[in-house]
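Notes from the pairing session

We agreed to fold both candidates in a single pass and log them together. This is the raw record for the first candidate, unedited. Please don't reformat it; downstream parsing expects exactly this layout.

Candidate A
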Amino acid sequence: MSKSLNQLTIRQAQAKLEDGEITSVELTRACLGRIKKTNPKINALITVCEAGALEEAEKADERRKNGETGQLLGIPYIAKDIILTKGIRTTVASKILDNYIAPYDATIIKKLKKAGAVLLGKANMDEFAHGASGENSAYGATLNPVDNTRVPGGSSSGSAAAVADDMCIFSLGTDTGGSIRCPASFCGVVGLKPTYGRSSRFGLISMTSSTDVPGPIAKTVEDASIVLSVIAGPGENDFTALDKPVGDYSKMINKSIERIKIGIPRKLIKDTDKNILKVFDKLLDKLREQGVEIIDIELPHAKYGIPVYYIITPSEISSNLARFDGIRYGFSDKEAKNLLEVYTKSRGKGFGDEAKRRIMIGTYALSAGYYDAYYLQAQKVRTKIKDELDSELKKVDAIMTPTQPDIAFKIGQQVDDPLKMYLEDIFLSPASLAGLPAISIPMGEVKEMPVGVQIIGKRLDEKILFRIGSNI
């Protein structure tokens, strides 16, 4: 049975576009049709750009008629609603920015426009990227398309759900401590967190500036490699973006992995759901059959990644979210009688519970008398975690763990237990704190729900992730 157009991968869609079998307008209409049918239930998108998408698709078709080619020319995608898109509402899933219209494009959006990709809309998410479930949105929770009673993971919840539900051919997310990899695992798609600085942060609404990085969510490892080849590299106005060569990552797809060494931190993953570990061990056997050497490694400080992350992240949030004050842009409470009330009422009504929680934790950690005990100590342990990962990656080519310790949990199951929610990122936060590239790839199912495997590589060595990942 032939696939519907919206079910195609980037590679498949591009082949049909090049052969003249389909047009970008037809491909875009297929995705928009799927969005109209299923988004009211799944709630993956906050804003749909139907007219703009069809206009961009027509332009892409015209460019192709004029002899232009490109791997993303005419390919429809969705962007997480934390990424600025000129003339289009960017809410960060928060009431405080409900009607904010971005005045310029993020660098990665500019690059995709230049490549001819077609923006379908803006994806739902945990407010200000605060969460691992997709439930912390002012516009309602996103549901997992595999099982609508379960969460899709977060914070790039809509981005992953949209790809899994074939609303788009690929999407963009952001990953600060697992926000691409977690929902990719829960929804059964591929999610890549590039090396910190590999793709420009300019035009992202800041959450944790020292770990934020945009990356692709896709249907296949090859598709993720294609998108990274377009969005990677430096851009104006971002001094953290690395000016390093960007190759054609898709050349690593299906390349032999014989003699590659992969490290497994057994002590770190020992408390993972036993059924997930069975799937994981079966995958390791498959890799051994392909000539991979599996080596047990030690990461004694990785277990402290969550407490470190949840001191550093709220501290940076406390600073970054100070700009949303009801004065310059966004929601402003009209009942305020003086300047102090403008601040307190606007922020009190505009921010959700999780945003407020993190602002308070961060402000406390940075306050006089506590800075040394919390923030400074967390930065020291962060350095330890980074050094350990770098040291082990000198002995092996990559490190592998399950992406998540459990399958996607039920909607509402952990809403009242923020600590348990934070622990969802236990395998994900170390790579973020160290600035290393990491990818989540589907490795099987447990209780009819997808589970992912995480591969972590050396700094700027995304190639090894694609090479190993395409053989899974």
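Candidate B (folded immediately after A)
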Amino acid sequence: MSDCIILGVESSCDDTSAAVVKNGRQVLSNIIASQIPIHQKYGGVVPEIASRSHVEALLPVIDEAIKQAGVQKNDLSAVAVTYGPGLVGALLVGLSGAKSLAWSLDLPLIGVNHLEGHVYGNFLSHPDLEPPFLALVVSGGHTSLLAVPDYETFQTIGQTRDDAAGEAFDKVARVMGLPYPGGPEIDRLSKAGDKTAIAFPRALADAPYDFSFSGLKSAVINYLHHDRQTGHVTPPADVAASFQAAVVDVLVEKTLRAAADHGFETVVMAGGVSANSALREALAAETKRRGLRFLYPSPLYCTDNAAMIACRGHYLFQQGKTSDWRLNAVPGLALGKL
């Protein structure tokens, strides 16, 4: 049986990425062109600038991915591309490039849900991982608990009712005057702080699996404003550590509750916030205490990347789930939707 070689394309936000993955789990190349330096001066992603940067970077990134993989274009089995969720302009750039390449090479096109791709990043870091498992997806735009009983099913158990965890990190970091992206900066600053210094709220104690970070974000911002108005100076590291602990405590509690209630013995984490050291340490300790297996991707597969898209595309391709040329960007694409 010949190898299945998938070219993945990812452009949902501010990273332009292309990757070549062999047989679903062997990464031959994974090229990422980051726009962080471009957006830092604005304190966040500017959608129009992101789209234009994708236009400039996409073809060189695809060419480099194929070159580094050591394959020829006619070796490819299919082209997988993110079609949602994400910024509509950014998604359209990746879609247009992937469609053009697939059309010119007479290859199948595979539309991939970006969030499902994040979950599949775990397969790249842990080749022995198999469903079923519980997935905690934590990113700038999403915070969800998913039951993954097999390779094709993503059942939402719980999700955020307002701000995502990553969004709260970035907004609090901005008010604190920390550089973009704010999440890693808060994680770094927290290491020097006292996480018990400030009693920030833990929201939605009455909802077993849902999350809410809007109230926590507002509480932190109000605390910072009060500090400035009164001239009181709380060490920024204490603010960062106390805020981060409030987020981590809720994520860990609800994840473990969902695992126990639904009988999962394996818990995986995915998304940009899964790189947070405090969250990793807390979940690792608590899952070990309960005899559960806990996995998370390597840092490279936590942030947006095309290898995870190609991995997800491989399993869709094996199921015969390809897309036609009418595939369009779906900025608000939900989990589990094809």
